[in-house]
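User: Show me a protein chain along with its predicted structure.
Assistant: Here is one chain, sequence first, then structure tokens.
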Amino acid sequence: MAPGVAADLPNVLIVEDEMMLRMRAVDIVEDAGYMPIEAVNADDALKILESRSDIELLFTDIQMPGSIDGLKLAYAVHERWPLIKIMIVSGQLKLTDADKPADSRFFGKPLDVKTMIAEMQDMMGKGSLAIIPTDIATLITKTSHPESIRKAARLGSSAATAQEFLTAENDSLRLLLEQAGIDAKTLLAQAGIDAKEREAADKLQKLILEELHHRIKNTLATVSAIASQSLRTATSIEHGQHAIEGRLVALGRAHDLLLQARWANASLANTVRGATEPYDSESAGRFSIEGPDIRITSGAVIALAMTLNELCTNTTKFGALSVPAGRIEIGWKIDDGRQRLQLTWTEKDGPSVHAPSRRSFGTRLIGSLGQQLKGEVHLAYDESGFVYVLDVPMASLVAPG
């Protein structure tokens, strides 16, 4: 954005715990012509809203860690700051007009960028929305009966083309889930299991498929974000292709690690080794990795793996690994008193480095990990080599209990 213009742009508060998806949301807001302000969960968002009065639109995901989810945040904002417009996104596609605050809009992941930009500009340009006609809104305010509210919402939805999107399913995704489903009733009946056990199995199957659905939608959204942002700053088609391939491979390695850990807490040491191993050609020992092993959450695993991939990619092009004698030292320590972890990436015996002239997607991603984990990131472009320092609270890395 041009210098001096940012202060005059309307502010949009983005609330998204997934680093890659939050960065993509930032691009959408900027492309729509507005100023993004970032929060990683609802608690952070409320602190921002309570400290400033210039937020005009809330852009929030539903599923996120913290004391409340994104939908409850939307209701809280609608009640406390009724002039703030609200956009809600989710990978589950389950919201109806009756489920969300009045005058808010809902979108499913992966996001249709052109639609999102158009809808955002429409909301900001026309002020408060009137999705439900006035007579329907009056009916809703006069009754507290849930079924009446649902009927009123259905009456008001027929004229809105956006509403068709709320109930639309991704045909390819639905087919994938149908193929993945196992006819539990038939199999269990053949095994002679009684009706009560079959009912329990049906419920478990439904739960598993819903979770699979959610994870696939989030993964598709992440892949979409990686592709669009890689191409956004690519200097050529070939450069963009290599960037996308590298980032998708890094994402795949992170998911492999989480699968081994049953999608729970994974090893920090294994995360670091898994991310750097492809760049240590023939186990040449150019990486020195040292630090106490701890179990970190799935969100931290993916964010750290993607960040280390960017650091590795950059050093092979411009840093220590671009010359035969160069090496990388990665170490971390825990300050028990402050309950913080500090991880340092130090490049040795490489060429002199300089700060990049433009803020690429990779540079943004490296700097975003600190915000993702409620910590700080420091980058130093020294003559002796590039240094990256991550300082984060242990509570952001390790799951409670």
